[in-house]
Amino acid sequence: MTTAAEALAAYYAANGMEADPARAATWICRIGPASIEFPNWKWRRDAVTRHDLHHILTGYPCTMTGEMQMAAWEFAAGRYRHWAATLFCLPLALMGFMWAPRRTALAFRSGLTSTSLYGSELDLDKPLAALRAKVVTPPAETL
User: What are the DSSP calls for 28-90, one per residue?
Assistant: First the structure.
């Protein structure tokens, strides 16, 4: 039975990320061939583990389209409540409705009946399947 911690470690390795991005001083945002380095602001350090678990639990990939889907899902399921996080993620969700409208709308719809991990206790030793059952409602495939 895979734990949330094990799933995170595998996710970070598969996506070429640091083992614990919440501790990094900076992070890299990749948009197509461009890479931009940002400071790892406190609000991001506080949110990134739950955000990455949301990727794992929902299946939205670590790609530009996946980030747009994730932003839409998190806005519907319960976003991280910090003004800078909102300003950072809102454009992603809006771009998603233009770039990949069906996938973004499905993600938003799934989020409406799901519950994000923001604002709740996080037990990384919990089995991933139990966490998924608590958080994610599978998306309906019809729109």
Answer: EEEETTEEEEEE--HHHHHHHHHHHHHHHHH---SSHHHHHHHHHHHHHH-----HHHHHHHH
More confident residue, 31 or 98: 98
On the CB side of 97, how many CA atoms lie within 13 Å of its CA?
Answer: 11
Q: Which of 113, 39, 30, 38 is nearest to 67 (CA)?
A: 30
- Cα separation, 106 vs 45, in Å, equals 28
What's the pLDDT score for residue 33? 86
Beta carbons of 136 and 58 less than 8 angstroms apart = yes
pTM: 0.91
Q: How far apart are the first and last CA of the chain?
A: 34
